[in-house]
Amino acid sequence: MTEMMERPAESGTAGVKKVGFISLGCPKALVDSERILTQLRFEGYEVAPSYEDAHAVIVNTCGFITPAVEESLTAIGEALDATSKVIVTGCLGERPEKILERHPKVAAITGSEAVDDVMMHVRELLPIETDAFTGLLPVAAPGMRADAEQPVSLTDPNARHGDVLAPSVKLTPRHYAYVKIAEGCNHTCAFCIIPKLRGRQVSRDAGSVLYESFRLIAGGTKELMIISQDTSAYGVDIRYRESEFQGEQIRAHLTDLAVKLGEMGAWVRMHYVYPYPHVEKLVELMGQGKILPYLDVPLQHASPRILKLMRRPGAGRQLDTIRRWRELCPELVIRSTFIVGFPGETEEEFQELLTFLEEARLDRVGAFAYSDVEEADARALPGHVPEEIKQERLARFMEVAQRISTEKLAEKIGRVMDVIIDEFNDDEGDLPGTRLIGRTKGDAPGIDGQVYLYAGDFAGQVKIGDIVRARIEDSDEYDLFGEVLERPEWKPNVPQLGHFGKH
Ligand code: SF4
């Protein structure tokens, strides 16, 4: 196997160098993967569809929690079974000793956000001979600096950390994209090692984010997921400095950014927003229909003592904040994640969390049983909760969350809602696009529920990425069911490149 993988690229591949790529972890890591893939293509490498076709493999790892570390180490092992030319990057790459302990034969290791270093190793392992003739030709489909007129390399020495370039290779479907507005984090949550792995927060300029978003929407993207470690803190590190977007100076502030993004006419979805006071302004924009009425707010707990032990940012008076948000935007869908069984959590404190859940009636909820992360400060806290109690609390928590989700979704029956179509769910013999799977404005891809639709009169007409109007006819714990009523024209305020059908 190894021999087959390590055959020189020249043998039967006419000099084409193929690189396999494995992308693990969160959407933030996905954006890093897109940047590396963009640069690979820019430099003339091909992306191999399988290990068997690859002359080298890049593994973009996750190091957030112990199971993610394990998954990353397993993926590295699988890549090494195929080739010795394995480059490891990403969060776990910040801890090379952990990788080398298990896999001493990896060819190279880099940390996260390290497009330059990864590319340097790729060039060393798989040099591409420059052809005297083709080397003079312009590169097709290059990476574009978000605000540049000319294609430039992603490894532009003038690009500062965080002000990274817009990837032109996307790992998501064309109709949605993740846009990373900052990297790193200034907090010190006791259970998290992200700041140790990724460093302090570095925000991108608003102009850079806006040009990237503009380009994505012009290329057919209809939904932007705004991500970072702490989206509410966007711009703090660069003192909200202004930058140019279409002749205007825009502050690197979340509200200003949201206003401008909203004007482009695509769906704009906010993730990892902590409940700081200025988030109210964002919710006002949601109430005015400028950005999606959706907030992904990782609350993690409701007991003040546990939140303090966790050292969570923006904690306190959570119920009041949520009530206020709902006044400002009654349509608001709130997604959150929680940790149960944090060290020291008593039964009373867990009950406090359940009561909060009942009162807050959050729309979408995810929960994890606390697990130790090497190097995280929470490991040293007293009163670790036995595993069976953690699991029992997680089951009780999920039971309540599921009941609330069922009740909230049932309230949507009879309503007409916008649904973005992600995939077809056709049975054999159906016209393509008869049964559809999509999401409402209240559902983010991959983490929230889905809407199963029957296309009815629109069978065969609806395309992936269309935004349709649908009547909701049924619901269960997590998903909705209904029928397409209308297929309105998609009209963003950004000129569209090329022809994308009706939408
Ligand atoms: S806010 Fe807390 S949990 Fe989130 S990345 Fe920063 S330290 Fe980690």
TrEMBL record:
In the Enzyme Commission scheme, what number(s) does this protein have?
Answer: 2.8.4.4
Please state where this protein is localized. Cytoplasm
Chain sites annotated for binding [4Fe-4S] cluster 2: C185, C189, C192
One GO MF term on file is: 4 iron, 4 sulfur cluster binding
> Mind naming one GO cellular-component term on file for this protein?
cytosol
Q: Which residue intervals define the domain Radical SAM core in the entry?
A: 171-407
- What reaction is this protein's catalytic activity? L-aspartate(89)-[ribosomal protein uS12]-hydrogen + (sulfur carrier)-SH + AH2 + 2 S-adenosyl-L-methionine = 3-methylsulfanyl-L-aspartate(89)-[ribosomal protein uS12]-hydrogen + (sulfur carrier)-H + 5'-deoxyadenosine + L-methionine + A + S-adenosyl-L-homocysteine + 2 H(+)
Gene Ontology biological process terms, A to Z: tRNA modification
Q: Which family does it belong to?
A: Belongs to the methylthiotransferase family. RimO subfamily.
| Native organism taxonomy | Bacteria, Thermotogati, Deinococcota, Deinococci, Deinococcales
Could you tell me which species this protein originates from?
Deinococcus deserti (strain DSM 17065 / CIP 109153 / LMG 22923 / VCD115)
Q: Which Pfam families does the UniProt record give?
A: Radical_SAM, TRAM_2, UPF0004
Q: How is the cofactor bound?
A: Binds 2 [4Fe-4S] clusters. One cluster is coordinated with 3 cysteines and an exchangeable S-adenosyl-L-methionine.
Gene for this protein?
rimO
Q: What is this protein called?
A: Ribosomal protein uS12 methylthiotransferase RimO
Which residues take part in binding [4Fe-4S] cluster 1?
A: C26, C62, C91
Q: What does this protein do?
A: Catalyzes the methylthiolation of an aspartic acid residue of ribosomal protein uS12.
Q: Enzyme group, top EC level?
A: transferase
Q: Where does the TRAM domain lie?
A: 410-486
Residue ranges of every copy of the MTTase N-terminal domain listed in the record: 17-127
